[in-house]
TrEMBL record:
Biological process according to GO: L-arabinose metabolic process
GO molecular function: alpha-L-arabinofuranosidase activity
The UniProt record lists the keyword Transferase: no
Cleavable signal peptide: 1-23
Domain Alpha-L-arabinofuranosidase B arabinose-binding residues, every copy: 352-481
Alphabetical list of Gene3D superfamilies matching this protein: 2.80.10.50, Glycosyl hydrolase domain, family 43
A matching Pfam family: AbfB
Protein name as catalogued: Alpha-L-arabinofuranosidase B arabinose-binding domain-containing protein
Superkingdom of this protein's organism: Bacteria
Keywords noted in UniProt: Signal
Amino acid sequence: MRRAFRRLGTTLMAAVLLCTSWAVTTAQPAAALDPTVGYLMAHFTGESATGEQIYLAHSTDGLRWTDLNNGSPVLLSTVGTRGVRDPALVRSPAGDRYWIVATDLRIASGTSWSDAANRGSTSLVVWESTDLVNWSAPRLLNVAAGISGAGNAWAPEAIWNAATNDYVVYWATNSLRDGVTKHRIWYVRTSDFRTFTAPQLYINRGSGQGIIDTQIIEVPNSTGGYRYYRASADGHITIEGSNSVLGSWTTLGNLSHMGISNGTGGGNVVEGPMWAQFNGRNEWALWLDQYATGRGYMPITSTNLGSVQNFRTRTDYAMGGSRKRHGSILNITAAEQSRVLGKWGSTLPVNRIQSYNFQDRYVRHANYDVRIDPNVSPAQDAQFRVRPGLAGASGTVSFESVNYPGYYLRHYGFDFQLASNDGSGTFAGDATFRQVAGLANSSWASFQSYNYPDRYIRHYSYVLRLDTIPDATARNDATFRLTS
């Protein structure tokens, strides 16, 4: 990506003005009720076919990361541009609700950076959850609609603000203001990530200097002299401190003394600053994406954020199998970690489903239809993970797409399609099958419908159907083999 446009993101909301005085309440930290023991990172991977979606990684020490869900995305955007970047993980102060807010942008669809910045989506994409593993359908919140001439809404973040008893959602918008078109940081307030105040200008660097990426962290006991610290990619990586999210900020310096900049200072050119505190101690990591060299994220750490001179480089880290682009890190409790690893931590093999009577052909999805084809491209269209049957019956299986996680092979009107699991009993039944000895060859396999046990998966003119099996031709068509 170009330096000015590299870091993208999104957060949320649709319009309603909260017109009240900003009453100050007793300051309470926005933290989960139980101690945190692990770390969850949300990120995207790049401009590949499925790279601009939501990926998760887990760490036990805050430095070494393991990709979850076998390195595949865990959530797919089906709204707006159908792609997301720069996800922010947000937890309520009580730890009973979560949101993911992300940029509505898919460069892989052929969108140019100029179009994305000047004529792009002004909405953020939002998912909501009560347990961190079961998420709502994505929704669009047009936060930048109230900004005159807004060209986009990128790199959203959100932080709980105890002073106003709601969340401050902030992001970058490119627009003309005071005769200069550039990216500035704007914010809205919201209590539910559905309704929000009118957008207000938050950060505006001098002259023509734009700013896209900024992230705030709250620190306990105002370590270093401030309750909040802000890192921004604004030509440098500028560090600021404040005791109020919406108050004045003090510039503490940048990272030029470490040979790190966002372009203006040369050296190691980075973007996407991402904060995380280490569990159980007063030490913080600032992760920086080395996009200019393609080396991905690196951490620098500090035990006192009050001075930029306290940062130290680290080499004892590992980023896992996938390249991680601008995201966020959430410190998670033991209960949260158990749920997350229970859903996405296990490693299931990737399988293909080979036809018995056309052995150069494999089951694949194409535009959500399902058929058997030779030489499948991209290869992931013919790759599935065989999961326990969604209907819950012992000995049954369901087939989840590798490149469309959460999408399963299911029959509808006895035709097959790749469809998103809507959580209903009907979907679970339609997507569940019993693996039995192959009807044409017992060393192979056939797949009997769970809710129509007189019917089996078979191909007919290369298209997958759910049929009764009256003759030898049908038995051949209904016989398959799971291969690597």
